[in-house]
């Protein structure tokens, strides 16, 4: 038996209340009786609880103040017909499972949408950081300003354009970066927007035949193209061919099956929620 | 729908009567439903008035509970009609209490029921009557002061005589929660009545 303190506040009043209600196991009842026998305050609690139970059971019933019978008008108003009858079925207890089902569908839908959109974010972020190093390395022979400009515009100097680079070196000796060093033009443009600052607004410096030419038309548009769908661009000073680069943006880029399925799950779950809510309101 | 009378667990008169009335009401007989109302309106009002000590609100809750029962007659799947109606009334009362919590208004007034008079006979002694009336007033006041969940559990158990399992089904909580609410509620009542416990002792 535990040592009893003399302060009843230290004792378990709920145990005493349960003893008074006869709601204890044998072991608990023994402990509670010992407590009551040893502590006068606990004994008083037990006696009071018994008195309160007895008084509560004898409480007189309040008298109602009106008659609650239904009139014919009430019955007509309350009788369900047509769609209200159908709607009411969603509020029945046997269809209570629709609530967790709706929660699950909505959760799956949201998770699917997040999952479907996460790879493009990750790929864009990863490609942006990966793109800067190869481009900078590939143009190491160029002056800093032209290097920055190239990086800023995300333009890669392919073999065809290498001869046009006025970097002080012949075309043959110019470093030729591998054609797939920039995985995504979108990433390059994104990195340019983020890191190059004012340089991004300048055309690529010292590109002899391209100096007068405007930046390729399709570059900006490529920002919206999925990275996997866009080929690595090769800079071409010919604006006409720049449009062909823009043609890559026209590659099929519709929503994926995962997005569609997630949207359907989300909508079905939301519809179930709304139906249950409306059914409960109708009842 | 199958014969509801076969689902009666006890072969008692009121239960069979209730099930017959429900069947007739389900078939569209409004007078049968109103017979049910006559059987249970006092009991439901007594139950709700303890949970919602404002008399007008309690009456509204009971009326709404009977409306809801009528609308959902098809959902009745047998068993005790009294428990079914009580569950609807308890849910309606709890909805009202939740609404009161969202839009706090004046606290519940102490339940005054001047129509009640102590029974004549042995307790006709005037002094005894005064003590009994004061005890009822104090207990009602304490009931109005404790938490809604505890009050509902105590009223259903001590006043209405439902057992733990029935209360758990009505209120949608576990058996342990029901017991805990009842025991803690009684202790809360004792704290509220601390200054007036002499009325209850002896």
Structural commentary:
The complex is a heterodimer of chains A (283) and B (202). Chain A has twelve helices and no strands. In chain B, 66% of the residues lie in helices and 0% in strands. In chain B, helix 2 packs antiparallel against helix 3. The chains are: A mainly alpha (283), B mainly alpha (202).
Structural class of chain B: mainly alpha
Overall pLDDT of chain A: 65
Low-confidence stretches of chain B: none
* Largest two-chain interface: A-B, 38 and 51 residues
Radius of gyration of chain B: 19 Å
What is the 3D form of chain A?
flat
By DSSP (H or I, 4+ residues per run), the number of helices of chain B equals: 8
Number of domains of chain B: 2
In N-to-C order, the SSE pattern of chain A is HHHHHHHHHHHH
What string, H for helix and E for strand, traces the elements of chain B in order?
Answer: HHHHHHHH
**Globular, elongated, flat, extended or rod-shaped: what is the shape of chain B?**
globular
Q: Helical amount among residues of chain B, as a percent range?
A: 55-70%
Strand content of chain B: under 5%
Mean pLDDT of chain B: 84
Q: How large is the count of helical segments of chain A?
A: 12
Distance between the termini of chain B: 55 Å
Helix fraction bin of chain A: 55-70%
Share of β-strand residues of chain A: under 5%
Radius of gyration of chain A: 39 Å
Per CATH, which architecture of the largest domain in chain B?
A: Orthogonal Bundle
Write the layout of secondary structure elements.
The complex is a heterodimer of chains A (283) and B (202).
Chain A: H1 13-20, H2 26-38, H3 40-57, H4 72-78, H5 82-89, H6 98-138, H7 144-153, H8 159-162, H9 185-196, H10 218-221, H11 239-247, H12 257-282
Helix pairs in contact in A: 1-3, 2-3, 5-12, 6-9, 6-12, 7-9
Chain B: H1 13-26, H2 30-51, H3 55-71, H4 81-102, H5 126-145, H6 148-159, H7 164-171, H8 175-192
